Amino acid sequence: MSTLTKVLIILLTVSSIFLCGIVATYVAQADNYKKLYDSGQAKVRSAQNDARQANDQFNKLKETTQQEKAALQAKIGVIESEMITLKNDLRTLEVEKNQAINAMENANSLSKGLQETTDNLQTLFQNKETELVKVASELTKERNQNKEVTAAILEKMAIIAQLEEQLNQLQKEKENLQAKLVQVVRQYGKTMAKPTPSVPTVNDNVEVASPPTPSKSATVAKTRDIGLKGLITQVDLKNSLAMISVGAADGVKDDMRFYVTRGDAFICELLILDVDAERAVGFLERVQSPPKSGDNVSTNIGAK
Amino acid sequence: MSPNGQAKGKQVKASHNIYTVVLAVATGAVLAVAGFVLYMCHSQYGAIFKLP
Predict the structure, then answer these.
(1) Which of A141, A240, A302, B27 places its Cα 20 to 30 Å from the Cα of A280?
(2) Which residues of chain A make contact with B37, given a CB cutoff of 8 A?
């Protein structure tokens, strides 16, 4: 065996051992790519599952958010409408607030005026109280005087009652006398004029010292002409009766005396015996010439 | 083949010397590494000459 062969054997052996060591260490330290691939594949699958789940959750969340968005938009619409109404209410309240402020200012001014008036009234009240005390003292004095005066008035009233009774008696006598006077005067075509009262009226405030004395004008009765006029409608000379055209409606009464005239000539007198409503019948007296129908009759000669 | 030249007609005998041992060791190492590589391929990928 040559030396070269030997060298080559040694070199081959050394190199083979070296290369075998390198290969062994490389293979021992090499990564297991299948395992890495499987693990990566598993990670990819899990990531895909996670992505699907996340996508599902995202879709669900999206739906829920859309629903919540719609609900919130509806709520926003309601809240906006409420806000508009609240704004309107706020405006009205502001207007009312301004009105209330104006009213309050007016009330304050009124209260100030009232305060001033109450102060003035209080001062007036105090003044009136002092005056009232004075008036009360005067009133007590006047009451005492009034008691004395009322006692005197009672006495006077008793006197007045007696005088009134006397006056009534006198008036009754007067009426009787007037009735008699009317009967007497009526025969002569006169009637009583309304008397003017001359007796003073008695008041409560008038102190009557003595009973009133009737004046002469009250006692002396005045007369006035009756002034009845008419015409003779029928004449009965046999019985000395005649009918005239006036009656009770015109004021003709029994025992009334009429004068019958023709022009300026006196004819006779007529004493009324019977009175009807619009005619009367009388007895002819003091006949100067026979009366005719159409002659004038009157209660007073010369009366127009 | 020997440098010393052997006589013709003599039988060739393998020389069992140190170099043969060295070659054997080298061959064994190569075979061992090849087996180790095959084992690792089979254990990790399940196949030796195919793609997984």
Answers:
(1) A302
(2) 23, 27
